[in-house]
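Reproducibility note. Readers wishing to regenerate the assembly model reported in the main text can use the exact inputs given here. Chain order matters: entities are listed in the order in which they were concatenated for prediction.
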Amino acid sequence: MEDKMTLLEAELGKTYTVKEIATDDEDMNAFLFRLGCYSGEPITLVSKKKKSCVAVIKDGRYNLDNLLSEAIVVE
Amino acid sequence: MRIAFAGNPNSGKTTMYNALTGRSEKVGNWGGVTVGSKEYQLKKEFAGNQEVIAVDLPGAYSMSPFTPEEGITSEYVRTANPDAIVNIVDATNLSRSLFFTTQLLELGIPVVVALNKSDINEKEGTEIDIEKLSAKLNCPVFKTISVNDKNNGLKEMISKAISLAGTIQKPPYLQADINLHDKDAVDAEDRKRYAFVNEIVKDVEKRKVLSAETNKQDKIDAVLLNPVAGILVFAVVMWFVFWVSQAWLGPLVADWLVGYIEAFQGWVAGQLESSPAILSALLADGIVGGVGAVVGFLPLVMVMYFLIALLEDCGYMARVSAVMDPIFKRVGLSGKSVIPVVIGTGCGIPAIMACRTIRDERERRTTSMLTTFIPCGAKIPVIALFAGAFFAGASWVSTLSYFFGLVLIFLGALLIKGITGYKYRKSFFIMELPKWKVPSLKFAFKSMMERARAYIIKAATIILVCNTLVQIMQTFDWHFNVVEEGAESTSILASIATPFAVLLIPLGFGVWQLAAAAITGFIAKENVVGTLAVVYGLTAFIDVDELEMVGGANTVAVTMGLTSVTALAYLFFNLYTPPCFAAIGAMNSEMKSKGWLWGAIGLQLGTGYTVAFLIYQIGTLVTEGHLGQGFLPGLIAEALMVLAVIMIGRKVRAHFDEQYELHKNIKGTEGAAA
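Running the prediction on these inputs yields the following structure tokens for the assembly.
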């Protein structure tokens, strides 16, 4: 079985490509899309805390909670 | 002619709008400051002799609205037929912003792109070829710096927008003819649009520093977003704001101001020497004294506003929101609820309006219900008066008031979480961390003066009228005879306030004067001070010399006849009961539900009553070794409140279960059909 890597397990400072947004929450998917976070787009983790992280999407920095970073599958 | 201002959140629309119209609408360095649309005429220097109305719209990422606020924007540009659109683009985030730009360009309304924040790009060495960009988008593009007074590019940009009215631009990208109800087709189409934008950006933008590289700002953020250090910093920052405004600089200026107010009052009294005593009492004591007592606290409020404006302008609010999110999640709210709370230290009405950007309805209503527990600017005079008169001006009174307000917000949120049986839904939290910027002193000064103006107007209208009425009502009895000395309880005011005062006996301040002040406080919280000044014939509340504690007593404290315990109970009662009527009105329009509104008012009344009851009864027990007056009736009132909460909770939850049941049934049938 292929192990999906999410933003939660991503390395700091390394730029990944979003593979999919693994959620059945339509809102979450749509919201991330509008910011430019969708499959094929680059994403970089800047810092990580226990319950949240900061990631660069397009040219903006965002604070995401773990509910989101768990859903962002990267490669 | 109407020109709409549209663009992504935090691209600087309102800053530009303010610069072009001369207004001072609320601005701040985070996404979602503007709620609702605003419109005003352009300044002459920009519009010439034409009448041009600028329409400032809430930020939006795309034409398909996600929040009600975005809905306002897409609805407006689609249906209101503005003559032109100024699309404000955050020049530091071109790759995201142009998505919306290409959508706007499809509407058939002439668009001018304003590459705002171009100064930041220059600093970071990011170059955007505007001629190329303009050619690719087939619309004029201008570099703008709205925060600058000169060389900001605004005049050229807006003149172009005005001259374009009535023309048609050929859109660079047209959405394919797809079925808009087919989600996959829409998704695919939106991806194509983004790909189109990516191509443009690749062509026109040269970055020296890549966004993904860690920078200095990230290091600051690492500390501010740390769950321990970040919250500590927030506490220190807020304490500093309160300390400077209410214990140091604010009172310093206030002392100086009070001297002038007293001199003026003396002068008025002097002019009226030969007039009837009633007239003199009404004018010198009632109007000048009462209003003066309120105006005397103005410097405290002004300093506070100045400092909060600096915080809002630098980009700190987004960080606070992010660092507080995990804590607020525990009580069923989110980091988004923090911003209204901080704004609420200034005024409850914009705070309640700021709740509109919270997506989840339950969270939004809960926040607008609880945010006024944080004492607002109008409550500062009340806090300062009691701190000065009963606690030797101790700064812990003010600190405690805010801290306790925050505790009440948490407790209230937990209670509402319990009542509404919130357990199924999980809401995600995302917050853009805008680039830090040096806060503008000019902007903070403007925001402060704006507030000062509003405060003085309020003092000269609502508070003046209230004080006059209070003065008249306490001067006369129901037969319009002047109340004689020693028979004050026969006055109109006393007879109206006494029934309420009875209810306050278990709280330790069941006298009509205090009840009257609490009641006028619902009209405007500053009235508490004004009314106390009138009913007790006191002025110069913050005059340090007069308030010098002499053996634990001073004029104000002695006249009001309160102990430290009852004074604290009364202060907290005024702070944590419902806010003024204007704020309740704002609550009503945000909640859009009578049930929630009455629930909110009930909760706030209950909270104020309970807090005062506990402080008085426990405080009296500790300081005097026995319970206070009216303990039993108070206890019964408390028991009734608890009962009411349980009943409401049961009813609400039953309703939820019903709904939940219903969903299950639908899912069940679906399954059977398949």
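We highlight two features of this model. The radius of gyration of chain B is 28 Å. The interface with chain A takes residues 61-62, 64, 66, 92-96, 99, 187, 190-191, 194, 211-212, 214, 218, 221-222, 225-227, 318, 322, 325-326, 329, 359, 426, 428-433 of chain B (CB under 8 Å).
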